[in-house]
């Protein structure tokens, strides 16, 4: 049972492989993927599989394969300040990555059918904000998740710049999804076994492009019986940030710029592919079909396999002899945290500026 790209040993390894296979193509998407450890979205005891290019399902918790998330993140063409709606937001893994790109003046909403999954997503989000080393290297748009069936969103809902649907959409619901999009916005969803990018070009015009052949579990349909008729799902309000919150964002931004001026050679990516492991006959192929087998989504190669063989590998090894040996990774310094802690401010204010993070 193979993945579309080689299995990684850790998150960085997985991202290296996704980059090498060209599923990840832009720097901002790469940074978001490196900042969020996919293993953190797995339950204890299952984490070993987190760095394989495979979907994972356990009870109601369900993550798509990393190569699909890579294609989705690239196709969404995310930018700072955009509004994003995730339909079937699941564990919040994708929404959290999106939040790192759209930044504090974006909007980040998710709708998920299962209450226990929303609780799980909120726990994971809280853990990211409190404990992740990445948090201080980005400006973040915190996702807000609501429980409900995303096919029952209230008809007076606001529209979004970017929408992703994480479960298979029936043709009948295509227009419902398209109407949620602002003019100029981008919707990415699996429909008729194709991951599709739809751009709203005008009030009643859309352009569609197939990205990848896929097979997603379908969206759960609305409950249509009158006795169980559920209420329309109300999306979170488009709230304005408080003056206090805005001050924190601008103080942190100013301090980060100062730090960058003081250390012009510092990069925002903690590890720029420093680790390149040798693998015999590494498979470099793009997989373009996915099928469900039981509860696993299995990549099915359609293209001919292009196995990179030992001959090429020994050439690489020859070349690598001329390259400087890899230095051991230096421990990450949190410059922003250090700077805030060094300010002549009351401890309570420093704690606020640090989002009450302990590390
Ligand atoms: C493949 S998972 C998406 C995972 C998500 N992208 C993540 O980052 O964890 C699909 C999700 O869609 C949810 N779902 C299915 N039908 C739904 C519906 N009608 N309304 C809302 N959520 C739905 C499922 O419960 C599941 O969590």
From TrEMBL:
Domain of life: Eukaryota
Coiled-coil features, chain-numbered ranges: none
Single GO MF descriptor: protein-L-isoaspartate (D-aspartate) O-methyltransferase activity
The keyword Mitochondrion appears for this protein: no
Keywords attached to this entry: Cytoplasm, Lipoprotein, Membrane, Myristate
Membrane topology: Lipid-anchor
Gene3D superfamilies for the chain: Vaccinia Virus protein VP39
UniProt subcellular location: Cytoplasm; Membrane
Record region (Disordered): 261-280, 303-329
Compositionally biased tracts (Polar residues): 261-272
The keyword Lipoprotein is annotated on this UniProt entry: yes
Function field: Substrate recognition component of an ECS (Elongin BC-CUL5-SOCS-box protein) E3 ubiquitin ligase complex which mediates the ubiquitination and subsequent proteasomal degradation of target proteins. Specifically binds to the methyltransferase cofactor S-adenosylmethionine (AdoMet) via the N-terminal AdoMet binding motif, but does not display methyltransferase activity. May provide an alternate maintenance pathway for modified proteins by acting as a damage-specific E3 ubiquitin ligase adaptor protein.
Family, as annotated: Belongs to the methyltransferase superfamily. L-isoaspartyl/D-aspartyl protein methyltransferase family.
PANTHER family: PROTEIN-L-ISOASPARTATE O-METHYLTRANSFERASE, PROTEIN-L-ISOASPARTATE O-METHYLTRANSFERASE DOMAIN-CONTAINING PROTEIN 1
Protein name listed in UniProt: Protein-L-isoaspartate O-methyltransferase domain-containing protein 1
Species of origin: Danio rerio (Zebrafish)
């Amino acid at each position: 049972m193979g993945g579309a790209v080689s299995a990684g040993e850790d998150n960085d390894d997985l991202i290296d492989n996704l980059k090498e296979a060209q599923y990840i193509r832009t720097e901002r998407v790469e940074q978001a993927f490196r900042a969020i450890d996919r293993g953190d979205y797995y339950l204890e005891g299952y984490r070993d599989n987190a760095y394989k290019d495979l979907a994972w399902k356990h009870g109601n918790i369900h993550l798509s394969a990393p190569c699909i998330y890579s294609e989705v993140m690239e196709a969404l063409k995310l930018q700072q300040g955009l509004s994003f709606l995730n339909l079937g937001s699941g564990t919040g893994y994708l929404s959290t990555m999106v939040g790192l790109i759209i930044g504090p003046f974006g909007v980040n909403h998710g709708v998920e059918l299962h209450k226990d999954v929303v609780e799980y997503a909120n726990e994971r989000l809280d853990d990211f904000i409190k404990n992740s080393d990445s948090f201080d290297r980005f400006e973040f748009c915190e996702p807000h998740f609501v429980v409900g069936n995303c096919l029952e969103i209230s008809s007076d809902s606001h529209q979004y710049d970017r929408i992703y649907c994480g479960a298979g959409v029936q043709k009948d619901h295509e227009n419902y999804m398209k109407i949620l999009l602002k003019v100029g916005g981008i919707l990415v969803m699996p429909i008729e076994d194709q991951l599709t990018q739809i751009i709203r070009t005008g009030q009643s015009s859309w352009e569609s492009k197939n990205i990848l052949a896929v097979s997603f579990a379908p969206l759960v349909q609305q409950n249509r019986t009158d006795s169980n008729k559920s209420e329309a799902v109300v999306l979170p309000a488009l709230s304005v940030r408080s003056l206090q919150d805005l001050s924190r964002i601008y103080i942190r931004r100013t301090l980060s710029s100062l730090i960058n001026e003081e250390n012009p050679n510092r990069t925002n990516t903690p590890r720029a592919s420093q680790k390149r492991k040798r693998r015999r006959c590494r498979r470099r192929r793009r997989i373009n079909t996915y099928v469900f087998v039981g509860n696993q989504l299995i990549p099915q190669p359609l293209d001919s396999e292009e196995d990179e063989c030992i001959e090429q590998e020994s050439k690489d090894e020859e070349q690598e002899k001329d390259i400087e040996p890899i230095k051991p990774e230096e421990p990450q310094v949190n410059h922003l945290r250090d700077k805030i802690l060094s300010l002549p401010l009351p401890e309570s204010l420093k704690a606020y500026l640090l989002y009450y993070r302990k590390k």
